[in-house]
């Protein structure tokens, strides 16, 4: 059996004796020892809603209590970990193995499926966070392949085009595994979306229709060992453009969350067979800031590589992002103007691959009080 980890170390463009200056963070962004070992993000058991799917009846009270836990986690952290989520462990194992195989390919092979300027799926190793290059390699694929998206982020450009995933040709069952994993996580996402809706006092399927032609995408992340991990970040501090993000990670630590209560970085402890869930920009707008998209980052290690797989669940491109009518009144007026969801996603993706001298946040677009 081949050692995919060894092959990846040999082939990766990131393992170098001297670090390219484009990766080196300015002093203010370097991962200093500020991570606390105290309270961690909530751990939530989804059994009440996954059991409901397997039986004819349902315990409405248990689901309501579960929704309340989800709501509290979204308010206080913007992050939580779920167990007993219904996604088969076998497909999790196979998607992680597929990820290792892909990143073990020679760099020239990976570049055959490189992302394009306005079609963000495929391989890339040039993502920036806060204008510094991330120490990672990435392969993105669309959950709804061939999804329609704006041709550009420019507000006055009406052109709509399909986005397709460039799939590697010589990896057996790679595409099939990725697509199966996306479908399995989609079921989890809609269960979570129901719980989020209930937690906001809305009907359980209030938000489902926004995802009929979803612009969701999954990401295979590879964080190679780094000779100077104190000078770089795998992914710099950022907030997600999604409604919700569903993240699978293995037992190698590396995800940090900025705790809302005191601004301290908290390391997310990996829990076997779990997913880490976080609130994204779209849900922040829909909830009118009841739930917030929270900053997080990925660390790297000197000798140990790390793999993770987030899926960013994003609504259809033509959906209007604005605070939900039910959550707006005289005491809580709308805090955001209207945006087309596809334009926002396109703008965020454009911003991630070039230096702009600024870091995009949804709060920068709030209506002045």
From TrEMBL:
InterPro entries reported for this sequence: DIOX_N (IPR026992), IPNS-like_FE2OG_OXY (IPR044861), IPNS-like_sf (IPR027443), Oxoglu/Fe-dep_dioxygenase_dom (IPR005123), Plant_2OG-oxidoreductases (IPR050295)
Signal peptide per UniProt: none
Span of domain Fe2OG dioxygenase: 214-315
Keywords assigned: Iron, Metal-binding, Oxidoreductase, Vitamin C
Keyword Protein biosynthesis: no
One Gene Ontology molecular-function label: oxidoreductase activity
PROSITE patterns: FE2OG_OXY
Source superkingdom: Eukaryota
Family under the similarity heading: Belongs to the iron/ascorbate-dependent oxidoreductase family.
Name of the protein in its database record: Fe2OG dioxygenase domain-containing protein
Organism this protein belongs to: Malus domestica
Organism taxonomic ancestry: Eukaryota, Viridiplantae, Streptophyta, Embryophyta, Tracheophyta
């Amino acid at each position: 059996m081949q050692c995919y980890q060894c092959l990846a170390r040999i082939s990766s463009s990131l393992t170098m004796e001297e670090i390219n200056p484009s990766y080196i963070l300015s002093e203010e962004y370097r991962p200093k020892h500020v991570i606390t070992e105290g309270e961690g993000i909530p751990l939530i058991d989804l059994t009440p809603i996954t059991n409901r799917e397997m039986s004819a009846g349902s315990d409405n009270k248990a689901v309501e209590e579960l929704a309340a836990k989800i709501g509290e986690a979204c308010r206080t952290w913007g992050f939580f970990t779920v167990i007993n989520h219904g996604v088969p462990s076998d497909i999790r194992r196979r998607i992680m193995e597929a990820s290792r195989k892909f990143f073990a390919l020679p760099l020239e092979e990976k570049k055959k499926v490189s992302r394009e300027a306005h079609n963000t799926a495929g391989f890339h190793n040039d993502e920036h966070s806060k204008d510094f290059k991330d120490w990672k390699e990435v392969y993105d694929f669309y959950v709804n392949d061939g999804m329609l998206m704006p041709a550009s982020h420019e507000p006055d450009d009406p052109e709509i085009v399909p986005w397709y995933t460039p799939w590697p040709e010589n990896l057996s069952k790679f595409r099939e595994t990725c697509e199966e994993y996306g479908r399995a996580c989609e079921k989890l996402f809609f269960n979570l979306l129901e719980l989020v809706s209930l937690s906001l006092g809305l009907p359980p399927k209030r938000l489902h229709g926004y995802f009929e032609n979803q612009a969701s995408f999954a990401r295979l992340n590879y964080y190679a060992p780094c000779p100077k991990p104190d000078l770089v970040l795998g992914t710099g501090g950022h907030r997600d453009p999604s409604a919700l993000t569903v993240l699978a990670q293995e037992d190698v630590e590396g995800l940090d969350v900025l705790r809302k209560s005191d601004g301290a970085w908290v390391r997310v402890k990996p829990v076997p067979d779990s997913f880490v869930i976080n609130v994204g920009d779209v849900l922040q707008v829909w909830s009118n800031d009841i739930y917030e998209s929270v900053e997080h980052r990925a660390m790297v290690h000197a000798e140990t590589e790390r793999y993770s797989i987030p899926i960013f669940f994003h609504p259809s491109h033509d959906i209007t992002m604005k605070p939900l009518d039910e959550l707006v009144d005289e005491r809580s007026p709308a805090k955001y103007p209207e945006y087309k969801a596809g334009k926002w996603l396109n703008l965020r993706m454009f911003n991630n691959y070039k230096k702009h001298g600024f870091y995009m946040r949804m709060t920068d677009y709030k209506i002045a009080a």
